[in-house]
Amino acid sequence: MTAEEISKSAKVLIADDHKLFSEGLAALVQQIENIEIIGLASNGQEALDLLQLQSVDLLLTDIHMPGMNGIELVKQVKMHFPEVKILVISMYQDPDMVEAVFDVNAEGYILKDASREEFVKAITRLLDNGTYYSSAVMEKLLRKSIQQKRSSQPIVNLSPRETEILRLIMQEYSSEEIAEKLFISKRTVDTHRKNILQKTHSSTLVGLIKYAYQNNII
Amino acid sequence: MTAEEISKSAKVLIADDHKLFSEGLAALVQQIENIEIIGLASNGQEALDLLQLQSVDLLLTDIHMPGMNGIELVKQVKMHFPEVKILVISMYQDPDMVEAVFDVNAEGYILKDASREEFVKAITRLLDNGTYYSSAVMEKLLRKSIQQKRSSQPIVNLSPRETEILRLIMQEYSSEEIAEKLFISKRTVDTHRKNILQKTHSSTLVGLIKYAYQNNII
DNA sequence: CGATAAATACCTATTGATACGGATTTTAAA
DNA sequence: TTTAAAATCCGTATCAATAGGTATTTATCG
Asked: What is the C-alpha to C-alpha distance for residues A108 and A91, in angstroms, rounded to an integer?
């Protein structure tokens, strides 16, 4: 339909901290017609810098990068260069990740284990003003949202203060030491601990610590 | 020196579960002269199957793959096809990982964020009967081994009984419950706990649990 | 056979954490 | 501005865990 857009040779920028991957990807992209690679960035900031210098039609980016991560990069790009289409290429099928990518309005999401065919399809779809979200991933996302509705979030929300205290507990401070550190009474710390135990449904210190580990509060 | 070997077109096999990566890598490799890609495998078993079917000079493999991991694959390949050179391409600079790769006698180890130049260098080095271990990684390995010598293994050896009790602690049993469960006195459990704390150099329950987590005693 | 490690058991004292009550103030959202 | 959540504080009581000890039995290793 919008063949003109493709025919005038789309400009593509790749951002990935794994140089071998981005170079390989570049080699693949170059095999597609009417597409030209205008740069490789190995982190978010570099990508933004390159975007400033020249017009880009399509950004291919990883999520995990040192410094600014992919999500943040997408946000920034969408803010400053809204015309740039963005295809996120990630290792993970984590639904939360996909949701995050969704939320920042990237046009596409595919996995690193996608086939070349799927990759090409995604690119052409995006350049055609469409979107492409890997179906493998979308399925997981759906299943998750369904599950969430069923079990109606037994999600635990520790308050900032509570999280802070849990972190200190994890650092082997006693309640008394935590109190000193935070300039509050030991009683207060006790109360927080009580509430934390309740909220996390744990009945012992050991259970609490296991909770912290499983929720990456370390 | 052994130019004949390179000139007769080396056969390369790539194993990586991220298809986009292996396809990209293939595209890169094909830009090198006298090298031909004879197959892409997306897991260890597939790689072994392909090796059975045709002669291969060089195997490029990831470490993290579903099913058989890269280390295991290298082992198998070295066992059944000892003439195949192996270049491990990994995301991680983890010294333990490099050590493992070393131990199974892979000829090379580079990171996914290596440059194309380094990649090409590694390949030619291997095809020339040499080895190539990314210097970035080797440095870390060295530093680690030095550190290890300095602190000369403060390795902890919990007795079977102690490990058993630690496991029960991790399952949120109190000392009294553990005593009942093991038909011993609570005092005995106390003593064991005391010794466990000593041996693991932890001074609090939290520290102990962290130790258990870090040593997979769960 | 002697030495050592492991497992067992006990004692006293202290510290830390949890249970069960409350209550007030600050802050942010509706 | 009302309301709810978060953060603050206090008391009493009990339980759990740790810090010091000491001591016996059993098995294993050299």
From this structure: 14
Is the domain of B111 the same as that of B209? no
**What SS3 state is found at A64?**
coil
**Nearest neighbour of B206 by CB, restricted to A24, A170, A203:** A170
Residue tagged 């740039």 (tokens) = A84
Residue A152 lies in a domain: no
Q: Examine the domain organization and report whether A45 and A103 are in the same domain.
A: yes
Asked which of B95, B113, B148 is the last residue of a domain, the reply is B148
Q: Tell me, yes or no, whether B104 and B143 share the same domain.
A: yes
Answer yes or no: do B113 and A17 touch at CB < 8 A. yes
Cβ burial of A10 (10 Å; 0-12, 13-18, 19+) is: buried
Q: How distant is the Cα of A24 from the closest Cα of chain B, in angstroms?
A: 4
Is there a single domain that holds both residue A20 and residue A50?
Answer: yes
Enclosing domain of residue A196: 160-214
Nearest CA to B7 out of B128, B119, B121 is that of B128
B52 within a domain of the structure (yes/no)? yes
Cα–Cα distance, A102 to A138 (Å, whole number): 11
Contact A79/B at CB under 8 A: no
Q: Which residue has the tokens 């440059």?
A: B115
Domain boundary among B92, B119, B148: B148
Tokens at B201, concatenated: 């150099």
Q: Are residues A27 and A115 in the same domain?
A: yes
By Cβ distance, the residue of B113, B172, B209 closest to A19 is B113
Identify whether the C-beta of residue B86 lies closer than 8 Å to the C-beta of residue B14: no
Q: Select the more confidently predicted residue: A50 or B217.
A: A50
Q: Which of A172, A176, A204 should be substituted to probe chain B, the one whose Cβ sees the most B Cβ atoms within 10 Å?
A: A172
Per-residue pLDDT of chain A (218 residues; tens, 9 = 90+): 554 544 578 999 999 999 999 999 999 999 998 999 999 999 999 999 999 999 999 999 999 888 878 888 998 899 899 999 999 999 888 777 887 888 788 999 999 989 999 999 999 999 999 999 888 778 777 776 665 554 444 456 788 899 889 989 999 999 999 999 899 999 999 999 999 998 888 889 999 999 888 887 77
For residue A185, what is the domain's CATH number? 1.10.10.10
DSSP B7-70: HT-EEEEEE-S-HHHHHHHHHHHHTSTTEEEEEEESSHHHHHHHHHHS--SEEEE-S--SSS-H
